[in-house]
Structures are given as C-alpha cells and as structure tokens.
Amino acid sequence: QKEVEQDPGPLSVPEGAIVSLNCTYSNSAFQYFMWYRQYSRKGPELLMYTYSSGNKEDGRFTAQVDKSSKYISLFIRDSQPSDSATYLCAMSSDAGNMLTFGGGTRLMVKP
Amino acid sequence: EAGVVQSPRYKIIEKKQPVAFWCNPISGHNTLYWYRQNLGQGPELLIRYENEEAVDDSQLPKDRFSAERLKGVDSTLKIQPAELGDSAVYLCASSLIGGGANEQFFGPGTRLTVL
Questions:
Q1: Does residue A83 sit in helix, strand or coil?
Q2: Least CB-CB distance to B103: which of A42, A46, A104?
Q3: Predicted confidence (pLDDT) per residue in A54-79, tens digit
C-alpha cells in the first residue's frame, strides 16, 4: 500500500461546480501538506501549503487537513475550464524538503 | 524571473544507449531535486542536493543512474545504459532552504522514451 493514496479520476464537472479532491495517507509523521496543479506537459506548480490540521483559503481554493483521520481535501469553488489539470497532493514531515506525492487526480471542467 | 530550465524537453533513444538531462535551477536556490514521474503517477524523488552535496540519493538506482551538481548550480542526471522501464518524465525542482516553509519550483521536465 502506498503512503499517499489519491483517486486518479478522471473527474468531470460542469463549469461553475464545486470540486472536491481528496487524499488519504498512512504516515502520521506528515505535518506539511501541499496541493500542486500540473497541466499537460508541464511541471507541477504549488497551489496551497498547509501546516498541521485546519483550513486554509486562497481565492476559489480551500485546503483542509484532518490529521486525526489522515485525510486532506482541496475544494475549488466556481470551477473554470482553466482549472482542468491534474491535481497532486504532497506531504512532508520536514517543512517540504522531502515530499511524498499522491498519484494525482485528473480534473476536467466542461464549459 | 526565469524559472527552472530543463533540456532537452524530449528525448527518444534505443535501449542500452546513454542519455543525459540538464537542469538550471532558479538563481539563488541552494537545493536541487531530481524526480521521476511515470505516466499517471506522482513524482518520485531520485536525488536531492544541498549546494554541491547529494544529501539524499537513496532512491537513485546507482547501477545505471548518476548525477552531479558542479559548483552548486546546474545539474546533470545521466542514465547508462537506459532500459525500457526508464521511460518517464524526469523533473528537476529547486528551492531555497532557510527555515520555515520550503516551496519547490518545478521545471517542465524531460520526457524520455526508450525503445
């Protein structure tokens, strides 16, 4: 079993929908949680960075971490076709030096 | 500000041939990472450099892979000889470690196809 599990999708939603992306993990030492967005044939880019449990909001994006359940989520409000990409969760026990990635969820937002 | 630069972007070789990838990190970043990303999967770390020193290379298949970071700036990752299973995207990332959160910035990757 992998340390970080993520549903590969694809997840197809209409424009304007609320999107929920999730990851589960098994390593209780993880303290730093990140979401990366990766467009086709591009490198990942950091979207959200959260330390420990709680919520963090940035524009249309909200990241949630529940360490007791070893479960993290990314919510996208008012989804746009430009949000179509693969979303990767990543975790670390050391401020992000050593990242363990999930397999990524492919999201398609249809106009 | 220029991002992480990688070359070549694409490479097709036959098995048993050697191949090399080059990475130029963001100016001033002291830490450089090489990842391998297989199709439909997340990146997996191969090696991490802090300045010139390889501080984590536990996932690097040392029988065929080698890497160097001369003068603590550019880096080269080499595979010799390549095998069919090496087909993947090789990503380079860089960051500035100095306490607190450490954001890694990724390059566009080199897509390797081994025939």
A1: helix
A2: A46
A3: 899 999 999 999 999 999 999 999 99
